[in-house]
Amino acid sequence: MPRVSRAEADSHRAQITEASSRLFRERGVKGVSVADLMGAAGLTHGGFYGHFESKDALAGWAVKHAFEQSAERWRQRIAAAPDPDAQRGVLVDRFLAPQSLKNVGLGCPSVSLATDVSREPPTAPIRAAYLDGLESLVDILASVEPGADAAARRNAALADFATMAGALMLARATEDAPLAAEILAAARERLAPESVTRAPVTRAPTRKQTRKA
After folding, report:
1. pTM, full prediction
2. Percent of the chain with pLDDT over 90
3. Based on the structure, what is the number of domains in the chain?
4. Separation CA 37–CA 179 (nearest Å)
5. What is the pLDDT, as a whole number, of residue 3?
6. Number of H helices, E strands in the chain
7. DSSP string for 60-95
8. Is residue 9 part of a domain?
9. Mind listing the pLDDT tens digit for each residue in 69-87?
């Protein structure tokens, strides 16, 4: 059997990382097997352990990669905005856009993997990767928060990020109901009322209205 070159090995590792990063976000860490991951990467199951010592090790690496992708998108959006207010607004607006409901596999891992990570032991590689990744996004958001005091900007970023992540999580859980659009719109309005992008909101019927129907 011909020996795989270093360049080819690196390419295969990148394929595995990319496919795993997407599938973990879509199905959860426990929802995919090594065979699933290798199949999605277009590689054979038997080659997995030549790249990663375990699925846990891959999970940590894949989550690190997912957060790096999110951070890079955030930086690009900031670079394209004219001032800090617009920069903060575009981050909030894109995070809470209706498209984020469907875009789970390529969306922010802070939301799609939060439950999975919380169920892993403290020593699991995915825990450290998630913590480092979340810190990186909070730092980016803090850089565009108003005010001169760094501690106050960090506190604002933590509160804003918690609102953003919580809103998206709840909206995904209620995706088939009008409530999902209401949650996203309400969070955008609370965090960035001057944001230029606005999606139409369909109001969810109240319990009283539902009973009348």
Report:
1. 0.85
2. 74
3. 1
4. 34
5. 60
6. 10, 0
7. HHHHHHHHHHHHHHHHHHHHHSSSHHHHHHHHHHHH
8. no
9. 999 999 999 999 999 899 9
